[in-house]
Design a protein that fits this description.
With 268 residues, the protein is an alpha+beta fold. Helices cover 21% and strands 29% of the residues. The chain has six helices and 15 strands. The chain is elongated and about 65 Å long.
Length: 268
């Protein structure tokens, strides 16, 4: 059997042994699986940021990859453990709204609730570690070629959570910060397509916190060192950055902080 890729994304952090335990379970079932860490630094319980990160990463993987995602697992609550077939990939994790945010209007091809104890690492599974006892075995079984439908009972839809989209009004476009990377670059939920649609010129002004930034830049080096700028990130979302500095630290920007984009008034 050829090598199967399984990615892991969690909010566990890199210093805990939880990720290692999940990998051990996977390799015990599927020793030829290739394990790839996307990130374990998702802020605790932040399904919105996890969905943003995964939207950028998942399309870069080959079809057939299984993505194991354990963020805000809510172990012991009523949310269900699920496995999903979507866009040529498998998604495995808790049904807490993250997969609905990730898939959007492009509905999954098949969905099952992982309700078959014969597939679990232990029966009953741990009340506090479904990642090890339910999700890791499911991902590993998919890697060995076991059909998705064999892992559980079909379900009709995923749990949806409210998604805050940018708002457009007569004053401009209003969004918020959805992700801050390790360099302190602050990425918004405002896509390039929305800005192009409503603004014919790059002559705009951005307000975020106590900072006002004029006009769009193409690269970080378009402004002097330690100066703030506005540009499109590699995900084609509007980004607030500081050349060779941390926008989050220098400008006091936090996740979910409002961002407003307005046209620069034309002078006569």
């Amino acid at each position: 059997m050829s090598e199967h890729i399984i990615t892991l994304t969690t909010d566990f952090g890199y210093s805990s042994g939880y990720v290692g335990a999940m990998k051990g379970v996977i390799l015990a079932i599927a020793p030829r699986a290739r394990l790839v860490d996307i990130t374990h630094s998702i802020p605790a319980f932040n399904v919105t940021e996890a969905a943003f990160v995964l939207r950028q990463a998942i399309p870069q993987f080959p079809a057939g990859t299984t993505h194991l995602v354990v963020v805000d697992p809510g172990v012991g609550s009523k949310q269900q453990p699920v496995a999903v077939s979507w866009n040529g990939y498998h998604l495995v994790g808790p049904d807490n709204g993250l997969f609905a945010l990730l898939t959007g209007s492009n509905q999954p091809g098949a969905m099952v609730v992982l309700d078959r104890p014969s597939t679990y690492r232990a029966d009953p599974p741990s009340a506090t570690f479904h990642g090890r006892d339910i999700f890791a075995p499911a991902a590993a079984l998919l890697a060995t070629g076991q059909p998705l439908q064999s892992l559980g009972s079909p379900i009709g839809q995923l749990l949806a959570v409210p998604q805050q989209l940018p708002i457009v009004d007569h004053q401009g476009i209003h969004g918020h910060i959805v992700h801050i990377d390790r360099f302190g670059n602050c990425i918004t939920n405002i896509p390039r397509s929305l800005l192009v649609k409503h603004f014919a010129s790059p002559k705009v002004t951005c307000n975020v916190g106590d900072t006002n930034i004029r006009d769009l830049s193409r690269t970080y080096s378009d402004v002097p060192r330690n100066e703030p700028l506005l540009l499109f990130s590699s995900s084609d979302r509007l980004e607030v950055a500081v050349n060779q500095g941390s926008a989050a630290q220098q400008l006091g920007i936090k996740r979910r902080m409002p961002v407003s984009i307005r046209r620069v008034p034309q002078r006569d």
